[in-house]
UniProtKB/TrEMBL annotation, chain A:
An example Gene Ontology molecular-function term: ATP binding
Transmembrane parts of this sequence: none
Domain of life: Bacteria
Residues covered by the ABC transporter domain: 7-236
Keywords for this protein: ATP-binding, Nucleotide-binding
Family annotation (InterPro entries): AAA+_ATPase, ABC_transporter-like_ATP-bd, ABC_transporter-like_CS, P-loop_NTPase
Name the UniProt record assigns to this protein: Iron complex transport system ATP-binding protein
TrEMBL record, chain B:
The keyword Cell membrane is annotated on this UniProt entry: yes
Coiled coil: none
Protein name as it appears in the record: Iron complex transport system permease protein
InterPro entries from the UniProt entry: ABC_BtuC-like (IPR037294), ABC_transptr_permease_BtuC (IPR000522)
NADP among keywords: no
């Protein structure tokens, strides 16, 4: 008998207005996986993530977290099961970074929230920012703080929507290394990414979406094969061997 | 500075301002007369102190506190530093509610004006929240508030326009200019009766407002029951703003300025800013009312006129700073 999937999606369809943005998606994710969700703009990545968070109501289909159906879970139970890092990193007020991170431990903060927040800030090498107001941080610093907010939760599932968008190369590697480490420690991490090379390098599994449908799902080299790169992204690509494992190089067709 | 310390400091300042409001006035009282006021509240000096100055000053504090609380709640709920009942039209919809009752001839029915003003405030605030949930741009919310304010103002003007009684119209116009002149203990009771539940509801919504700093979606994934929070904060803000308008007419900008004065001292936490905002609002209004009383003019300055004269430039300053933050 196999273990309960951390996340199971069955026949999920979703529309925004009259436009179908997710069409009949079925997926299952196990503990310890770092899954890269890739696809062109408008492929339905964000909508899929938000539906799993319970933020968008699907037209059809069902979602289970740790075997419990999403619609049966109250707000608290959902918060315990998943942590969501949105693409939009706006924080309305100039709260101290530590306070923002501590919110990751739940909005009704318990005594343990502060130490956990501090540990999460250390994890992203941002302890020095703890007392700084988030409005005064640079884009890269704020991204680290917001990532730490997600890491401060001990939810089994982390859903990160474009966690490396707008970051410098060092920041991109730091974020993906930390997410990879969390997957290694048993959490399930789903990250939508535009950078296919980064996805190929860090992910255990790549899911390619296009026009709301899953076009490929498998190991990086298996999912991002020549046909998928050509049909979905309009790109030519080659896998090269390197000391750090296979590397994907891309070119316009 | 800790939150407890800023609250204590504001409370002390408020007490000093209240004593000043009791001792200063057009009629100068001697030490003996003060003694008489305390020993015999029914005497001339006693009446001045206990039936004129005291209810007026406490009214000013309560109305200011209601405005400060309402402004802080609206700013937190709408995530907008320019939100305030006056600026966003909630005071205007509250006035419209009150004016409807007055023109309908129900002004003498106990509590009718107050309840109508609260209902008007509630409708206005609900419209703002519904708008903010759909359109994220903070500037757009301000523009919607301007539209709401103009519309409610025009509707109020229309009521006067069509009203058969010019005397009633003049009275209502004077009320709308904003003042705590000639307010008695009954008014104190009314505004306090709204302020207490508003304060409790505000306290319940405080942790949620902090989570809401991260945006609607993220806050929901943190376990925040968003609809419940909106309801709590809306009810609190409407009760407070409606009570303030019913008691003292439209007094603008106090709800805007008070939270800004204390925000840095609570490290910008939109939940913790609520109590100090209420205290700062009370302090601002009792001092402002004292200024209108001791400024030597033939016609006493209207409080609402005075706060707008001081508050509007401050609004422009805060807008300047907010616009620069939004551009990033």
């Amino acid at each position: 008998m196999s273990a309960t999937p951390r996340l199971k999606i069955e026949g999920l369809s979703l529309s925004r207005g009259k436009r179908a943005v997710v069409r009949d998606v079925s997926l299952s994710m196990m503990p310890g996986e770092l899954v890269a969700l890739v696809g062109p703009n408008g492929a339905g990545k964000t909508s899929l993530i938000q539906a799993v968070c319970g933020l968008l109501k699907p037209d059809a289909g069902r979602v289970w977290l740790e075997g419990a159906e999403l619609v049966t879970l109250g707000p608290r139970d959902r918060a315990r099961a998943l942590a969501y890092l949105p693409q939009d990193g706006t924080v309305a007020w100039n709260l101290p970074a530590l306070e923002v991170v501590a919110l990751g431990a739940g909005f009704l903060q318990t005594d343990g929230a502060r130490p956990r927040a501090m540990a999460a800030l250390e994890e992203v090498e941002a302890s020095a920012l703890a007392d700084r107001g988030v409005a005064e941080l640079s884009g890269g610093e704020r991204a680290r703080v917001l990532l730490a907010r997600v890491l401060a939760s001990d939810a089994g599932l982390i859903l990160a929507d474009e966690p490396v968008a707008g970051l410098d190369p060092e920041g991109q590697l730091l974020v993906l290394e930390r997410l990879k480490a969390r997957a290694g420690a048993g959490q399930t991490v789903v990250a939508s990414l535009h950078d296919l090379s980064l996805a190929a390098r860090f992910a255990d599994r790549v899911i390619v979406m296009d026009q709301g449908e899953v076009r490929a799902d498998g190991s990086p080299a298996g999912a991002l094969d020549t046909a998928v790169l050509r049909d979905v992204f309009g790109l030519g690509g080659r896998w090269l061997d390197s000391e750090d494992g296979p590397v994907l190089t891309l070119a316009r067709l | 500075m800790t939150v407890a310390r800023i609250n204590l400091m504001l409370a002390v300042a408020l007490a000093v301002a209240l004593i000043a409001a009791l001792t200063l006035g057009e009629v100068g009282l001697s030490g003996a007369q003060y003694a008489q006021a305390f020993s015999d509240p029914g005497s001339g000096p006693g009446l001045i102190l206990w039936q004129v100055r005291a209810p007026r000053a406490i009214c000013a504090v309560a109305v200011g506190a209601a405005l400060g609380l309402s402004g802080a709640l609206m700013q937190g709920l709408l995530r907008n530093p320019l939100a305030e009942p006056g600026v966003l039209g909630v005071s205007a919809t509250a006035s419209l509610g009150g004016a409807l009752v007055l023109v309908a001839g129900a002004g003498m029915v106990t509590g009718a004006v107050e309840l109508a003003a609260m209902a008007g405030a509630g409708i206005g605030a609900a419209a703002l929240v519904a708008f903010a949930a759909r359109i994220r741009a903070p500037e757009a919310l301000i523009l919607f508030g301007v539209a709401l304010s103009s519309f409610a103002g025009a509707a109020t003007a229309l009521i006067f326009n069509l009203s058969p009684s010019p005397i009633a119209t003049a009275e209502v116009m004077a009320w709308l200019l904003g003042s705590v002149q000639n307010r008695g203990w009954a008014d104190v009771l009314w505004v306090s009766a709204a302020l207490v539940p508003a304060g409790i509801l505000a306290g319940l919504s405080a942790p949620g407002l902090k989570a809401l700093s991260l945006g609607d979606e993220t806050a929901r994934t943190l376990g925040l029951p968003l609809d419940r929070l909106r309801l709590l904060a809306l009810l609190a803000a409407s009760l407070a703003a409606g009570a303030a308008v019913a008691t003292a007419g439209v007094i603008g900008f106090v709800g805007l300025v008070a939270p800004h004065l204390v925000r840095a001292s609570v490290r910008a936490d939109p939940g913790r800013v609520l109590l100090p905002s209420a205290l700062a609002g009370g302090l601002i209004l009792v001092v402002a009312d004292l200024m209108t009383r001791i400024t030597p003019t033939d016609q006493e300055l209207k409080l609402g006129v005075f706060t707008a004269l001081v508050g509007a430039p401050l609004f422009a300053l805060i807008a300047w700073r907010a616009a620069r933050a939004w551009r990033v």
